Here is the input.
Amino acid sequence: MTTPISLEAMAASVPDGALVALPPDNSLPSVALAKALVRRGARGLRLLGVPVAGFAADLLIGAGCVAEIETSAVSLGEAGFAPRFSAAVRAGTLVVRDCTCPAVHTMLQAAEKGVPFMPLRGLIGSDILAHRPDWKVSDNPYAAGGDPIVLLPALQPDVAIFHAVMADAEGNVWLGRRRECATIAHASKRALVTVERVVPGNFLEDERLAPGTINATYVTDIAIAERGAHPVALLDEYGFDAGYVADYARMAKTEAGFAAWLAREVFGQRAAAAE
Amino acid sequence: MSGIKPEERLAAALARLILAPDAPPARHIAVGAASPIPAAACWLLRKAGHPVRLSLLHRRSGNPFTEGTRELFDLTGQGRIDLFFLGGGQIDGQANLNLVGTGAWPGRDVRFPGSFGSAFMYAMAHRTILFREEHSPRVLVERVDNISAAGVNAPGVYRRGHAQALVTGKCVFRFHPDRARFSLLSRHPGETVESIRAATGFGFDIPDAVPETPDPTPAELALLRGPVCDEMLETYPEFCARVFGRSEARAPAAE
Here is the structure.
């Protein structure tokens, strides 16, 4: 039995400096929690884009919440390059650990299985590998000789953060086919999940809902945040708000424009909600 | 039939490369997010009756993957993706791709979004078609500043496939992994070998005869503007409006 906590309490439970895993814009990011982290003034976060990062990451970077990011890309999709991320790279104020998508999944899967590393094909010849001293190349022990392959260390995030459609009375979370969020939850020490709504019953007793469900075992806390993925699409619940993201991309091109956007869209919202 | 749009010509050129008789069969093709022209090429084959399986990664409704985005990479790792498309902020004469950025690592001059899955997909898909509309010395460089994904590997490194070709707004290059070099396969109307050479930062081989890239056939154009556009409206509304003039595409996007 899980009682939802408030969004602001959830944000307060993420310590400064935490390694925070986030899904990308096509897979259930909690933009609501990212905004709450900006409001709480989080500092020194280390973000992990699973496997890439989008709107929520750019927002956190611009607001000065992020010291490091490990990801395969940061992009606003159709709205173009992520402006605050690009500015931080240019300024040298952000440590960027470039990755490639399947490597992120593989490192999390190693953590999920509780093994120290997993191998992955490809990567050899890429400068990504050259800049990752923590990734090792070893000969395949099952080959007759040679066959170099990359070994990736298990990666256990401190906190997984994502947004799902609904939680049930038992604290199980339903996310449909977006199972990478299950991998993040399985691999992380804690999972903080915002949901559109909490419904009665138990998803695990429904054969059709159970395959798209994360067992409450993996879910630390739930907070209700209606339209919590906005401006990102949420499954078949609501679509992508292209106008909102285009407006952000335009304003966030400059530091001053980004500050004005934050005042209106992040800090303004709290004032409105408190009334 | 009204004037052929450059995008329509490119889609038809890609479709011909996909079916090239000397290439491995394309039974299962995966198409990434920012790829409306490759997606159009794949739909063109499907609508022309070729039994190809298409996995469109960013499709919101009916997305093919139920294990999240890692399923694409697991499929590719097993050799179950025959063809993938990649581009690059820079592409060099050995088919190395730079999606990270220019200047010092990790892109201190101009930072691009990042490498995505390229470092894996390029080596593990059975083949890759490189696609970049901008054909300029800034994009097609002698040597990329940073390698996101390598065009060829040293002997002894396991690799399933390579670039088959590079399609740009000016021409089609074929890639030869044995000698890590491109050759000119066809030039789009209005281009000459010299105009292509002037716009290309890397050296490439020029055969005795370089034909013009063929026009899409009337049947291909009819498919592109009709059933192909229908399939693409949800994922690529802007593209469908611009290329096919289907401005009603905006309605579902504004939900």
Observations:
- The first strand of chain A starts at residue 19 and ends at 22.
- Chain A touches chain B through 58 residues (CB under 8 Å).
